[in-house]
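[SOLVED] Need 3D model of a two-part complex

Original post:
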Amino acid sequence: MTNRKLVDARGSFCPGPLMELIAAMKAASIGDELEVLSTDKGSANEIPEWIRKVKHEHLETKEENGVWHVIVRKAK
Amino acid sequence: MKILVVGGGMGGTILANNLARRLAVELRGGKARITMLSASDKHMYQPGLLYLAVGRTTPDELYRDQRSLLEPGIEFHVDPVEKFDLDKSQVTAKSGKTYGYDVIVIATGSRPVAHEIPGLAENAEQFYTEESALKMFKRLQQFQGGRVVIAVGVPHKCPMAPLEITFMLYDYFKDRGILDKTKIHYTYPIGRTHSLENVAKWATPEMERLGITYETLFNMKEVDGAKKVVRSEEGSEAAFDLLITIPAHRGMEVIEKNNLGQRGFIPTHRHRLNMEGRENVFVVGDTTNLPISKAGSTAHFEAEALAENIAAMVKMGTPVRDYDGKVFCFIEAGKDRATYAMFNYQNPPDPKAPTRAVHWFKMAYNKLYWASARGLL
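Solution:
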């Protein structure tokens, strides 16, 4: 069964959702899924951009009631 | 009610003092008791390390005796906790003594872990301890020019530190007359020069004006000391003659060993500040896993809110307010100008252009801090 860890970065201006994800990646194992919750719409672009650059896997981005859910998988 | 504070840093000390004042009558009457356990009898003003690293303060300025900062009603022991038994509401300290509690506040802080990046600890200067800040300053004194790279780990204590050290180094090299032989290159983990968008909007043109180059989306992977390059997870590399790092941090080992939180950060309710799933366990400062700045001011404002709530719990059985995510950070923009950023969970900061007045206020706060630690400011 795949582990999915929630990274609740709602209301995080500093360090912000991407930095929270980078920190959470360190505690995750290869294959783990991480779901970032963000109230910053910029996360919908900047998180997938970083994920592509470091060659992890972007699974899904969706918006529900003003909260962006960006789901990724640690690939390495 | 027995209140146990674990940790004598900024968060634990402000919390204990604020609480002792609010519960002065209860402490005198024996209805409340506050005990603090700390690893040291000294209290360090950690933001001062930034100034130590560029020769603008001395180590003795950074310390006070912990006992001298505490309200008389607080029982203080230098006896660091080694085992947390949350189910039994007790801890065991290094001395072997067991301390029971009705309410516990965990404020053990965080620690730099440069050694987690291969080659970083051996090849970079840093300033998160007295020893390393002094070493960095001595290295700076010997530096005669070359390429200086600033590299930033995640998460790190004091989110303004990467910018502050960059601008302070610029002025340091300028004052030494070696700026024309020095190239400063700033790197940052996310896609702009600071996590706060409005701070980045100020910092980026400031770097361009000063001739400081920058690279974003740069997360350290390894440092090759022989070739003098730092490589990133993103596939790029930066060559250096002098590497300055703001290293990644973890919570304290005791938190990890007791399985209270991954990488030493305890899952914490963002408003009530209790450990998730525990009603009588509270967390302040760097020890939380909250998505806000690991900074002294965060610990300060959390401690004030929590002290008010614990006092209310003693007096009327219920907390009275939520922590709103408030953070206030000064931003040194060089040796004689500064600005600040204030924000919470709902409102982003809107920093103004740096001024000398804010810098001098920061200089004053470096002294006023001791009043903050006493719970007075």
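Edit: The two ends of chain A are 18 Å apart (CA to CA).
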